[in-house]
């Protein structure tokens, strides 16, 4: 109970899902779940198939999202096979997680009434005309997706319940008792592994590359071998400068008096609770309290909340602005006042107001530094905007005369060294400035130190740019890049060779033939103990390996950041018990800080207890 009330107070109260936002997501992906050919499936989760069509559509959506985030950089990596593979695996993993959560919701009877879904449909903009629900629009949409009203409500409910569960976990740190136990089991699990490293560097040195190979590679990839265009830029830069501004105590005192309502300590209240399983128990306890029995004593002896009962019912201080609905609705406003019986989820509460800390203004010495900075910032902005206006007028009057702009603005320009797209000075490394320098016609490359960009304003920073010097993009000669190409081809050959070797080894190992290790002179290092909360990159790989048996060892392989290939042998899986103190620390940490981690561990547990099969045709 405490974790729910406290976190409702920390995150305010979790409102019901914002229908419009969720439906906007659903309209983007709903057709992915309709009319699918499940014969062409990529994976099966506890018997439920994920179609290739679903994966293909969700992959396209993810690629569009990446393009939006990465901008022009997306095209540099979009055709990279490794990038495509990672995107594919990420999307498939997300779909599997979605299916697992939907199955989990069904299992725990996490339900929403049909009339709630109907209300959301009624306020959906796509089904409205003149701010009124249009039944014809709604029916036409159902016809277009080949569903009737009942089927559509069922589908929407399924998706919204998943979002509702995620909101419950991430916004209120909702964790079922069973999930607490499962999370603890996951965290306590340890795995003993051994590693064998197939190093790439020795193999690279052994590769032989012929002249025709390097020359052919150069001819096919000439666009990769060039000296990019280079610039030297001279620019004016200014921003609000708080360091040069002064502020005395008189100004601080006047500001404080004028804005005292900005510097208040919010009212907060201290509460205690008694939680019971049934209304009958709560009624009996309320009767005892009305007859003068001690609230703290009853809370300690009879409250079923495991945390507050140890503190005589105390759940601590809660600020007025973040008060949970359960306490607001209790309508208790006097110290020592006790509420009636309040329904909370499947339990019942009696709440007592034990102390009030009233709202009051902070003392001037508590906020003097804050006020000082506010005054200085305001003054610096005023000076900055005056200078900005002045520079703007000067640049407009001297369109092709950067030197005149410098002279009249009385700002010393900054001059860069030579730079290209890969070595942009930090101050100029901004998407808008880069576009002006590299991609636009704003700067005339032929009129050095005459043409300028005009005034450019970015988040209270102002620039005027001018090209001091410029070098055209040049194609590199084969002789200058021959050694570089040789290194690239050697690496390509070595990786191909080692992958072929590794594939052969893994086939033997997965078929139970470990003699291949001696044949290939592969030796494992000392055993390592791995925990699920270790920060090494391969944790998820290790914990996704199936359990070894007495008759068969389990192996997997991966490529590390140095491009070496590592074979992992899983020796043992076991649980390491936590002490009661350690358990409390873990749960408090999960409740206090890490809703994302909680959701992650719930999904880890669902994955571990599920049968997930992958269709090898698509993997």
Automatic annotation (TrEMBL):
GO cellular component labels: plasma membrane
Residue intervals passing through the bilayer: 12-30
Keywords per UniProt: Cell inner membrane, Cell membrane, Chaperone, Isomerase, Membrane, Rotamase, Transmembrane, Transmembrane helix
GO MF annotation terms: peptidyl-prolyl cis-trans isomerase activity
Record keyword Transmembrane helix present: yes
Main location group: membrane
PpiC domain sequence ranges: 266-355
Coiled coil: none
Membrane topology reported for the UniProt record: Single-pass type II membrane protein
Highest taxon of source: Bacteria
Cellular localization per UniProt: Cell inner membrane
Record's keyword annotation contains Membrane: yes
Family: Belongs to the PpiD chaperone family.
PANTHER family: PEPTIDYL-PROLYL CIS-TRANS ISOMERASE D (PTHR47529), PERIPLASMIC CHAPERONE PPID (PTHR47529:SF1)
UniProt protein name: Periplasmic chaperone PpiD
Organism: Buchnera aphidicola (Melanaphis sacchari)
